[in-house]
Amino acid sequence: MEKEYNFSAIESKWQEYWEKNKTFKAEDFVEGKPKYYVLDMFPYPSGAGLHVGHPEGYTATDILCRYKRMRGFNVLHPMGWDAFGLPAEQYAVETGTHPSVTTERNINNFRKQIKALGFSYDWDREINTTDPKYYKWTQWIFSQLHKKGLAYMAEVPVNWCPALGTVLANEEVINGVSERGGHPVVRRPMRQWMLKITEYAERLLEDLEELDWPEGIKEMQRNWIGKSTGAEVDFVIDGIGEKVTVYTTRPDTLFGATYMVLAPEHPLVDKITAPAQAAQVSAYREEASHKSDLDRTELNTEKTGVFTGAYAVNPVNNDKIPVWIADYVLISYGTGAIMAVPSHDTRDFEFAKQFDIPVKCIIMPDDELAAPEVLAGNACWTGNGKMINSANHDGLDINGMEVADSKRVTIEWLEARGIGKGAVKYKLRDWLFSRQRYWGEPFPIIHLEDGSIKLVDDNDLPLTLPELDDFKPVASGEPPLAKAADWVTYTDPETGLKGRRETNTMPQWAGSCWYYLRYLDPDNNQAAFAQDKEKYWMPVDLYVGGAEHAVLHLLYARFWHKVLYDLGFVSTKEPFRRLVNQGMILGISYKDSRGALVPMDLVEHTGDGAVHKQTGEKLVEFPAKMSKSLKNVVNPDDVIKEYGADSMRLYEMFMGPLEAVKPWNTKGVEGVYRFLKRSFRMLTAQQISDAPMNEVQLRLLHATIKKVTEDVESMSFNTAISQMMIFLNEFSGDKPLPREAAETYILLLAPFAPHLCEELWSALGHSDTLAYEPWPEYNEKYLKVAEVEIMVQVLGKAKARIMMPADADENVMKELALANPDVNAAIGGKTVRKIICVPGRLINIVIS
RNA sequence: GCCCGGGUGGCGGAAUGGCAGACGCAACAGACUUAAAAUCUGUUAUCCGUUAGGGUGUGCGGGUUCGAGUCCCGCCCCGGGUACCA
Questions:
Q1: Is the bond preceding A599 in cis, omega lying within 30 degrees of 0?
Q2: How far apart are CA A738 and CA A698, in angstroms?
Q3: CA A224 – C1' B84 distance (Å)?
Q4: Which nucleotide has the shortest C1'-to-CA distance from A175?
Q5: Interatomic distance A714 CA / B17 C1' (Å)
Q6: Nearest nucleotide by C1' position to the A842 CA atom
Q7: Which pLDDT tens digit goes with each residue over A751-807?
Q8: What is the C-alpha to C-alpha distance for residues A525 and A126, in angstroms, rounded to an integer?
Q9: Can you tell me the distance from the alpha carbon of A624 to that of A587, in angstroms, rounded to the nearest whole number?
Q10: Nearest residue (Cα to C1') for B15?
Q11: Residue A821: exposed, middle, or buried by beta-carbon count in 10 A (0-12, 13-18, 19+)?
Q12: What is the rounded distance in angstroms from the CA atom of residue A121 to the CA atom of residue A127?
């Protein structure tokens, strides 16, 4: 008699229904409905398949999309594939399988896995960055950048990774090894494509203000852009007359400069080096040029450098200070030259101590304890204080000023005398945009024999990738595309000039920089996207993805978007209005008493905890990143098979706040599975009644609508689910279930567990999908109660709980409280000093 | 070092400055069952106490407040980012 919760049958039935009826197709330009564009970070379709981290963000956005549809929004929720990338290429190098074959296979697998979770995507808008119909427009955008002068070639010291046979962006190198694979990276000059992201530094920084993004992510972008304000000051080299410009953020400490440092690569080094020092200097420069980033990171404890024999004249006091070269000064930042103020800069202080250079204190520290040491030159002070040993006599009276003020005053003073000027610098560098790989977008670029560069005509795009059998880079470091001789050679039809096609390809970021725009118009063959569609849908209302994209992808995409804005192709300054980062899902892992990690297959669970299968040693459980080596990777397919997609979705939302890092626990899936099973039983086996609800039932129903609605809006899915559990616990049982409660409950649960709810909805006699049913509204009047329990505290300690009318005012509450025997006992005849009264909540009686 | 997060039962986690531990997991006890699974009911921060009841408790130390997990000051620990950026 009683039906089983057969989730597999229910889920495939409704997934087919949605697909067949195109239930979630997003229509452009719907009149009278607000639009809502929700973007998921599209995945790289790896061979390993979907990870439990993917459905976390996807479920969160899916709940919001389903909710917004019920709220009458025209929702756009698309999915696609970021499919260029290294793993497919490496697999190709090893096996000879063409990356397009691997990619297609992986995409099919990913699509199947994602569809099994029942997300309400508009699959008609699916995109794939490796599809020539897509990358045609990636190439077109590059052409636009090139025409605007934002793409250029430069011989730059790049991060060359011999193991990967390619250069990497600064962002892709972590502590001297590659982000992917962890291979060593060395510096090497190469001719490369660069994009002028630095031209947009200020706007990328400023426009962060208007974005509804997590403050931490904004801060990371600010730090990455790294704006600093200070001054450029000219020093003249004594006896040679050459001028060296230094950049400093502390022009107010100019009087404390006791030496100057040039980067080893600084162009003036040869000119100013004294003959006696030449050998030493040239040896040091040679040594520095061989240092990779890795070496420099490892050696950052000790400072090195050599004296050039030259002296510079400090323009503010005519002091002659020695000029050194040292690799702690970088040629790529500021002017490649600094004035060193050891008394008020910690790095300069270290260097001065190491080489016995004088330290001159010019700021008397505010901190009296620190002052004597700093005055004696034994310590460094970077805080506020009074200027001393400075140019008070020169009209510069900045005694007692805070650092910020004295900086401003000094800059004005320098400018008035023509010695220096205010300057702004950024850490952000131009974006190294080329890779020596096969599996990426070819540049629409031809190098002609006369040395000029020709863009492939827009009408000839896409410039498709040539077929290759061997995907290895050429030994010389030339990219694999150089092997496609026919493809590479070119003769200009107009001039007859011969040329070679660019053999570098674009980095993986290229395709992901603008994919949110292609979803708006995925089949357009005439343009990347129609402008009226862009105007209708943009900006993205909500973008959900992992925090690992905090700087790279999100900064690059914002940059391209701003370029497209300047060119008039998009109508918003920023692409992503609201951003939410999902927290990583960790696996369970075990370690033994020595702290060694134990893979899951060697762990045995016994009555009193986990033990090592072989040694029998007790193991400690702890959360750690899921990894192949720990064998603690959870496969979504297995979870779906055992508990169903609705349970998988619900569990990932119930684990905790979306942003939090949280460990996976399969037992927890069982908990939500039980909840869904009970929901199914309540709505199928329990008698549905048309009798009106009583006061208590109405209150719980409306409180649940209120809580779930508010929690979905704020993406607090875990507490929304807990409220629905409370509802279920109250309503399930033998008593008949009021129809209104049943239907409302189904609609509230539908965004979370859509398959089950569609099934229950149709079982209650509805013939249509519930996807567009109006979202339940709550009524405040049902939330009111006649009497509430008021806690009465005496000196902050709870002494009694008294039922009082909900609308009782302070006087009534006080009277009722003071009439209570327990309260009186607690007061014990002492004097009542004060009574704090919080209507509807508590009373606190202060006695003495 | 610097910049962000975070620290609450056995575990995941709840708490507009107002009864800390909602909801779930696990555990324990009971019902049903020949038995198990499934299901249902109950207990479950901790200490003292047979009970009634009382004490303690949100990383540590101070402070503000009638009242602090929540606000302020000073630390400790964990996670993430970043690093000679003048």
A1: no
A2: 10
A3: 16
A4: B83
A5: 22
A6: B18
A7: 999 999 999 999 999 999 999 999 999 999 999 888 888 888 888 888 888 888 888
A8: 15
A9: 5
A10: A719
A11: exposed
A12: 12
